[in-house]
Amino acid sequence: MLALTLNAGSSSLKAALYELDEPGEEGCPPPRPLWADEREADASIDDLVRGRAAIDVVGHRIVHGGSMLVDSVRVSPAVREKIERAAGDAPEHNARALQVLDDVTALLGPNVPQIAVFDSAFHATLSPAAFTYAGPHEWLARGIRRYGFHGISHRYAAHRAAHLLKRDVGTVRIVTCHLGGGCSLAAVHHGRSVDTTMGFPPLDGVPMGRRSGAIDPGILIHLLRHDGQTIDSIDRLLNHESGLAGLSGTTGDMREVLKAMDSGSERARLAFDVYVHHIRQAVAAMAVSMNGLDALVFTGGVGANAPRVRAAVCAGLGMIGVELNPTANERVDGDANCSVSWTDVAVLVVRAEENWVLAQECLRVEATVRR
Asked: Could you give the CA distance from residue 185 to residue 148 in angstroms, rounded to a whole number?
């Protein structure tokens, strides 16, 4: 089976083609794809698909499945409608994924099956105490609750970490930190997500490249009452003009923030410090949700490629047993354990492999459909 995977994120479109014959073991390093490409988020997929070998199935990362879609599924008109309905809570992400899905249909025809894999699905195991907001009880009936996102990445990172530690994922308490353009943390207890930082849309939690993360809701009331802000301007402010970009004056790319810091920018230094402060807090909070911690995992573009971020986060976590090996941290190349040898809490770096998870889900769903 040739599986094309398309991961439409907030800042990029990642594509890969895998040849599959049987499911791989979760946690094992994936094989190299036949080819892979990464482009700007709004890039056309025409030249990614045209002229390729006959594609048997296409897998899509869909950010928000809402409460109705909690498992990977073949896309049908009814499923597409549910994805579109959930787009109201993740408008940019789901709308982009739906456009990619429709483009694939136009290019490959309706007979090539397409599989939707939901970022929110991994967090369907949250308890009511973890997913319920302390607003009116009626919110629950309206679907206003914590969903959580980056689940595809958190799931892979947790299983990969357990494999690196030579332990069964069902015996390990893991905090996974997906740090990229979007950022979130998850508490993975015995292989299941029990807490996470993102909420109803992919906006809550720690600061991100351009998104604010959690802020005092009273600020929004103040801005609406006194600054002439509108719902649309607040939306733009929180999703595009905040986070690292808003504080530092850069694009929000961590590489630019670090360069600006090294050039003496106080704004960039503040942005970095705020970012690290909130990630540290979130790591501790996730550990509390599991009554302890066995492994801290960094993944995503920043998590896997910014040793200064990892060092700064871990520097404030000694009280929960986290101690980084500075030399190993600087020399990370691929997946690695970079904690000191005597600590009980492993610190690991895991390269994000969302496209590989998408390919595996294509194989699993198609095998089920064809039985």
From this structure: 9
pTM over 0.85: yes
Element of type H or E holding 307: helix 307-315
Phi, psi of 333 (to 5 degrees): -140, 100
- Amino acid identity of 186? A
Kindly list the distances between the CA atom of residue 298 and the CA atoms of 81, 158, 239, 354, in Å, as whole numbers in the listed order.
Answer: 35, 10, 23, 14
Q: What average pLDDT does range 94-107 have in this prediction? A: 87
CA dist 38 and 40 (Å) reads: 7
Rg, the chain, Cα only: 20
Give the mean pLDDT of 259-278: 98
Cβ-in-10-Å burial (0-12, 13-18, 19+) of 309 comes to buried
**Cα gap 359→33, rounded to integer Å:** 10
Catalytic positions are: 119
> Exposed e or buried b for every residue in 132-161, given b needs 16+ CB within 10 A?
eeeeeeeeeeeebbbbbbbbbbbbbbbbbb
